[in-house]
Amino acid sequence: MPQRHSKNNNDLAFFTYEEKRKLGYGTQRERLGKDSIKPFDACCLCLKPLIDPLCCQKGHLFCKECILECLLAQKKDIKRKLAAHAIQQKQEKDEEEEKQTLQKARELDAFDQQNHGAVPQYNDRSQSRDRNGFHGANSVKVTSYEEEAMRNMKAFWLPSATPEAPVKVEAPTTDTTCPEGKEKLRLKQLFPISFTEESNRESKKSKALESSYVCPSCKVTLTNTLSLVAVSTCGHVFCKKCSDKFLAIDKACLVCNKECKVRNLICIEKGGTGFAGHDDHLEATDFKHLGSGSGLGLWKPASKT
């Protein structure tokens, strides 16, 4: 006989703490490893080391080939959506003109019936049809109201009368967006950047496949834990401390002595720390709670604060 234990006790009228934990109750925490974090020198699209890196005004880094292909694909998609929207507008215009034509025809028909309703409109000597238009005992004339009802009848079992949901194509925006920050992005807003590689030969031999970069001012190795700043005028990358201490005050690059202003200092977006949330993204996305007596784990979105 197996012994009763608090973790395996399932004959109570309430959930124990261990049973709640098994159902996902409470805050879920998970420490991410290094393989789950994007390095600061990796492309946001291909997630590979940067080749001819370009940076947007929000600090997202891309390979030149990757971002050009992305912007070109967005332009093709915008062109396709504009064509579909133009076709839809033309169809809506044609349908509106057809409705107006039918409305005018109905108004003329009603006016004609009102003015000539007392005069019989048939000349049948055999008198096989009466005034209501019946052709005989077994024939029935379908009125205009019945025709309209038959035309608008929704029948899921008839292919010709199956209702269709109209797919409306919204007018697309003509601006290309950044694939990472979702803000408006143009090709001329991108600027090339250049990292300063470490000149130590021993580090190069030990890391033949990985290239390490340093700040050209303080010679500190750049990692994901540091805040990096890129100069949009020349493209050199510095750490945040050197940028605030020298670039923001001297208003000139320390490498090429090129003039730069405060608006030219772009903070590079990092790949993240060892936690799932970092910087300004510390916000819960979902939580689980247990219904009273139901025994079911329900999911609800967390309320934004």
From TrEMBL:
Major localization listed first in the record, in broad terms: nucleus
KW Zinc (keyword) present: yes
Keyword Glycoprotein part of the UniProt annotation: no
Residue intervals of the RING-type domain: 215-257
PROSITE patterns, A to Z: ZF_RING_2
Cellular localisation: Nucleus
Keywords noted in UniProt: Coiled coil, Metal-binding, Nucleus, Zinc, Zinc-finger
Cellular component, GO annotation: nucleus
Pfam families attached to this UniProt entry: Rtf2, zf-NOSIP
InterPro entries assigned to the protein according to its UniProt record, in alphabetical order: NOSIP, Znf-NOSIP, Znf_RING
Protein name: RING-type domain-containing protein
UniProt source species: Zingiber officinale (Ginger)
